[in-house]
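Working notes for the structural subgroup meeting. M.R. asked for a predicted model of this chain before we commit to crystallization trials. I am recording the input and output together here so anyone reviewing the notebook later can reproduce the run.

Input as submitted:
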Amino acid sequence: MSSTIVNADWLARRDGWRPGSEDARDAGDIDYGRVIHSASFRRLQGKTQILHLGDSDFYRTRLTHSLEVAQIAAGLVRQLSKAKPEHPAAKALPDRSLIQAVACAHDLGHPPFGHGGEVALNYCMRDSGGFEGNGQTLRLLSRLETFSQSDGANLSRRALLGVLKYPVAYSVVRNPECVPRLHAGYSRLDSIDVRASAPPKCYLDSESEVVDWVLSPLSHEDRAAFTEWQARNGRHGRSLHQSLDCSIMDVADDIAYGVHDLEDAIALRLVTEERFREKIGPNVCRPFLDALQRRYPEEGADPYQNMVEALFGDARRRKRYISRLVHYFLMAADFHERPSFSAPLLRYRVGLDNGARQCLDVFKDFIMDEVIRSPSVQQLEFKGQGMVVSVFEAFQSEPDRLLPTDVGRRLEEQGGDLRVICDFVAGMTDEHLLKTYERLFAPRMGSIFDRL
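Returned structure, recorded in token form:
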């Protein structure tokens, strides 16, 4: 890695593996290769970014989203290296392969059917340690992938720190008042109370040993501060800190979500120009419009009108403005310092200036309100949520009969730990879960030759 002020302990791997002397790759190259060659990464092609939009060559899956996050994250590193070469944080920046590894891995743990699947699995695991998608990402990388005997993908310590988005354990930030449960008062419908069953943002307690290892190079003071969290009334607690690499990935993820998901929503006609003008007026994205005015004065005096016409016009103009938005956010990134930390990977983070942050948040909220929370998407998420619970509980009820042989063997070896079933269901693509549900519950008889 290119960093010159980061302790070499961050290059270590849990099983002590080292490349041969003839291997020209550095630690980031190895991490990146293991992520993109992992089964978990390939499965992202079967998990849609916006739930079940249908057959289209255009809309993004979690795989294409992750690749875009990786490209933007690499761009952020390159831009900051060029614009702030004398800043002390510049020497701690990750190299291209390392940040792409972190970015490509950030969504690996997300289950089928989006947030609905996450809530469903947390409900199923309510008495067995819970479930959370980011926590599952760490579990996949450190336990379940097959690049090592027992350490998963066996990534470098720094890469695992980068994907540790919430450095607090499930049992620590879980609010005991928020108990996963079904809605009461229905005679025919078992419906999950989503508000009560949504998990905290965390790592799973099953990976506490891994997190201890990841954080071991830190001083006692840095570790105590890094794992601080904030209690909230009526809600789960929340973590307060993340590492430099994680902050770069997080900003890149926000840009990809706020800009590229907007592109999908417009192209697929999930949002209208009228609603866009109503919710995103010229004032809320003024810094971007001013930047356009300065850079392209020949395009006229009304950059807002030009932007809206381009976004809702032909595909070529839309793509040009999507690129301009991404470029604007890249240029708005800067280092933020937390002087209370001594370790460079914790002391420095990357964030957007206030104007760009406000603008991006407006785009993200627009997609959330107009698309993700729309009845058409929520109905599918509700249905997917029910299918996840049904499949999980079917496997739980008769594992010897219903689980694939290798999963059943692993369940037996681990003393019936429901985490084994959870890992199996969480790893399914949307289509795999749907076909498994139909095979178990649909009236059609099915065949042993059906491909799952």
